[in-house]
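Technical annex, item 7. During the second reporting period the consortium partners agreed on a shared format for inverse folding records so that results from different sites could be compared directly. Each record opens with the tokenized structure and is followed by the designed sequence. A conforming record, contributed by the partner at site C, is shown below for reference.
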């Protein structure tokens, strides 16, 4: 049982109100039109949820990870596309800028996110380097007071709508992962191009694009941390990001479970509600257990992060279990809805499509198992 304090309850209720009043009513439209959820973005921005954990010193709300998880669940229950936009901004953009950035970076770029209402993005994956980020080929060469970036990135969430991009490139390719560095690149920088949106199975309202860098010059002050520190920055950032995706998966799974319970009570067959049939009741019981276990794993990782303790294993466990539980629960819910669930008249088909990506991005389920096994066997 997770004991929430009054601040946590207030954050949860605020997120729930925004989700019910603004996000949910527009979710199907944004999904079907593959359109960025502008109204949802504005509501979350105005509530301070797009820079929840940034220190007030840099214009953020200064909230803990528990608050972030609670808000992410409520938002993702209403719209998974909005959830991942919020997750990337908090976990993958704001976090490395604040944790590893210089005062110049914090005051110049972090404040654009926390105070200026701008979105951030995280550019690590490449066409030939997804689960193996150390294999990336994008380079950054120091030339006087500037770095020159060349290369490309793939599968970038918030691509095109973000103004601030955390980009990883090799400053010394011979050193492999030890030669990777992190940079800030602003939208509109000459030589930085954003490609067309990907056509996707799910989270269709979240723009995902490739990026390309062709002799893109950025000031040397845009280096995050020090040269060669990029891989460490990426991995520690992804640890926190996996808590956000676990929370997103929890939101999707809970929405699917709620839909299954509601439908089972109103749909009748053989003279009674289908909720009376034991086989169906057991399906729902298993899904409820899945969601509760995923919730406990996710909050465990969040608590460790808030205590500034190591949470790599716990974040991987939470992300792995919550994402696969969301996929199972969405599948169960669609099965209970039958033909109705296969139509767009019910949101369960969207939950089904959206759930799958949580087991793929920010580290596939297979990569999470690699991380967990390394933590429990090799430590």
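Designed sequence (site C submission):
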């Amino acid at each position: 049982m997770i004991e929430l304090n009054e601040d946590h309850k207030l954050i949860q209720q605020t997120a729930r109100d925004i989700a019910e009043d603004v996000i949910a009513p527009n979710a199907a439209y944004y999904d079907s039109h593959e359109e960025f959820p502008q109204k949802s973005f504005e509501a979350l921005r105005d509530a301070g949820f797009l820079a929840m954990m940034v220190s007030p010193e840099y214009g953020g709300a200064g909230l803990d990870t528990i608050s972030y998880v609670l808000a992410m669940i409520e938002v993702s229950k209403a719209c998974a596309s909005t959830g991942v936009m919020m997750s990337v901004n908090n976990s993958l953009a704001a976090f490395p800028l604040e944790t590893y950035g210089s005062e110049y970076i914090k005051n110049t770029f972090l404040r654009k996110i926390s105070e200026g209402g701008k979105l951030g993005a995280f550019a690590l994956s490449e066409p030939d380097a997804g689960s193996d980020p150390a294999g990336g080929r994008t380079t950054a060469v120091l030339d006087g007071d500037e770095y020159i970036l060349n290369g490309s990135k793939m599968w970038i969430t918030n691509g095109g709508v973000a103004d601030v991009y955390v980009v990883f490139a090799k400053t010394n390719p011979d050193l492999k992962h030890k030669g990777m560095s992190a940079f800030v690149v602003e939208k509109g920088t000459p030589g930085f191009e954003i490609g067309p949106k990907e056509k996707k199975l799910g989270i269709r309202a979240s723009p995902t694009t490739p990026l390309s860098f062709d002799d893109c010059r950025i000031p040397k002050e845009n280096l995050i941390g020090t040269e060669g520190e990029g891989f460490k920055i990426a991995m520690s950032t992804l640890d926190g990001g996996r808590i956000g995706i676990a929370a997103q998966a929890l939101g999707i799974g809970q929405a699917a479970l709620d839909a299954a319970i509601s439908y089972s009570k109103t749909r009748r067959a053989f003279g009674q509600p289908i909720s009376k049939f034991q086989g169906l009741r057991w399906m729902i019981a298993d899904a409820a257990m899945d969601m509760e276990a995923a919730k406990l794993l996710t909050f465990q990782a969040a608590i460790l992060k808030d205590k500034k303790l190591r949470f790599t294993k716990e974040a991987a466990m939470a992300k792995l279990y919550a994402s696969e539980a969301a996929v199972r629960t969405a599948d169960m819910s669609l099965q209970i809805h039958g033909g109705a669930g296969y139509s767009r008249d019910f949101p369960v088909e969207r939950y089904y499509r959206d759930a799958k990506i949580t087991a793929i991005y920010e580290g596939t389920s297979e990569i999470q198992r690699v991380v967990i096994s390394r933590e429990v066997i090799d430590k």
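Residues 230-266 form the longest helix (37 residues). Residues 120-231 form a domain with the Butyryl-CoA Dehydrogenase, subunit A; domain 2 fold (CATH 2.40.110.10). All partners now use this format for quarterly exchanges.
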